[in-house]
From TrEMBL, chain A:
Belongs to the binding-protein-dependent transport system permease family. HisMQ subfamily. GO terms for biological process: amino acid transport. It comes from the Bacteria. It is a multi-pass membrane protein. The keyword DNA-binding does not apply. It holds the Pfam family BPD_transp_1. It comes from Azospirillum baldaniorum. Residues 17-205 form the ABC transmembrane type-1 domain. This is Amino acid ABC transporter, permease component. Keywords: Cell membrane, Membrane, Plasmid, Transmembrane, Transmembrane helix, Transport. The chain crosses the membrane at residues 20-41, 53-74, 86-105, 142-164, 184-204. GO terms for cellular component: ATP-binding cassette (ABC) transporter complex. NCBIfam families: HEQRo_perm_3TM.
Amino acid sequence: MIRAFSYNEFLFLLSAVQWTLALSAIAFIGGATVGLVIALARTSDIKAVRLAATGYIQLFQGTPLLMQLFLVFFGATVMGLDLNPWAAAALGLTLNASAFLGEIWRGCIQAVPRGQWEAASALGLRYPGLMRYVILPQAVKVAVPPTVGFLVQLIKSTSLAAIIGFTELTRAGQIVNNATFQPFLVFGIVAVLYFLMCWPLSLLSARLERRYALATR
Amino acid sequence: MASAYDTTDVPAPRPVSGEVVIRMAGVQKWYDSFHVLKDIELEVHKGERIVICGPSGSGKSTLIRCINQLEKHQKGTITVNGVTIDSAHRHLDQVRRDVGMVFQQFNLFPHLTVVENCMLAPMRVRGTSKQEARDIAMKYLARVRIPEQADKYPGQLSGGQQQRVAIARSLCMNPKVMLFDEPTSALDPEMVKEVLDTMIGLAEDGMTMLCVTHEMGFAKSVADRVIFMDRGEIVEQATPAEFFTNPKSERTRNFLGQILTH
Ligand SMILES: Nc1ncnc2c1ncn2[C@@H]1O[C@H](COP(=O)(O)OP(=O)(O)OP(=O)(O)O)[C@@H](O)[C@H]1O
Ligand SMILES: [Mg+2]
């Protein structure tokens, strides 16, 4: 039973875009939250904390994202948890994103000159106030362009969630292709849809980077 | 050579109170195997103005940075206003509240306006209300004579103005003693005077001051005591009159000779 590729198939692909966006958003918010903790741990004065954060980052940067998704998805089953593909994908991507964002933001925190830490400490600010009012506001300015750049990576990474059965854009493409056998057309459309999500962000990232470069000249 | 050490402008020694604000006893510090501070003994009395000089790398910055623990010492004790520094955060907080510091590179917070730079610590460390913090900030900005720059960002100011803001920012915490680490070294020559004048004003108001500087004119006219450091040791300390006319050690004489030829 081969169906023709019709307007309905196109609408199905289009509606799958929202799941890709939703998964990206969840992974980004979760990854940013955990990533901030990782970045702070990586720049901590306490050696054990620093080492733990370094290990976490290396673990997630040194293994394929697909393996991480498998481990979360099947690992949960082994541990007797019934994690649906949606939750497994969100959790796996969150962990992965947190490691990458943590490492990006570590660099941004360390880019704030030593003198700023010293001046704030000399004024009597303790770590939380020093971070919140002096270091992080300056680190954020450096962090925005690479963070937006990473978001593009993250959106593309969500396509791997298709393999554990979560119906986002790529999985929707597979489903439509199985019914229509028009791979070039179907995956061409899927690619264009990804491009339309990522391209504006890439432009934004490049623009922010240029603006930052001008501001710090 | 003698004319450079002309002492006619050196004031007579001032009497200073007996109250000790800073006491360093047997302080030693190493960077790995490098012995950077060797058995430092130093007492600073209330209202006293001390100038520290010495060749590059002699440990001047390290010494004053140990006082507010931007650097940790490994041996000996440092007591500020009766509080001895140890591993207790409470003690460190107390010391830092009593000690203001001005850096060579100003280190103003670039993302905050001038007045916000001055308000931050009173609000976040002392819990002062915003309105009160602003009033305090404006008072000290007026004192360093730049109240009209209050709403600008540090990047819009000249070096001399930035350093005066840095001084005001420290004063807002009402410190008992001020540390200066070469406050005029990063400035264009025409801006040195405005910063030195601000420091002289502070001295006249009775502030206890510890200044690392090579401004020998400032040392002569303001200091009660000049300390000469070399290779991690306090080699000599004396009143400016003695220090400049009759230095005791060979190392001091060499140093003064070199400064003179510049
Ligand atoms: N973090 C550090 N690690 C290792 N060595 C250091 C460190 N900081 C300073 N030193 C060394 O300690 C010595 C004393 O440094 P310090 O900055 O106190 O000297 P200084 O008298 O202030 O010199 P300058 O006049 O150049 O400012 C120098 O030899 C310096 O190289
Ligand atoms: Mg120095």
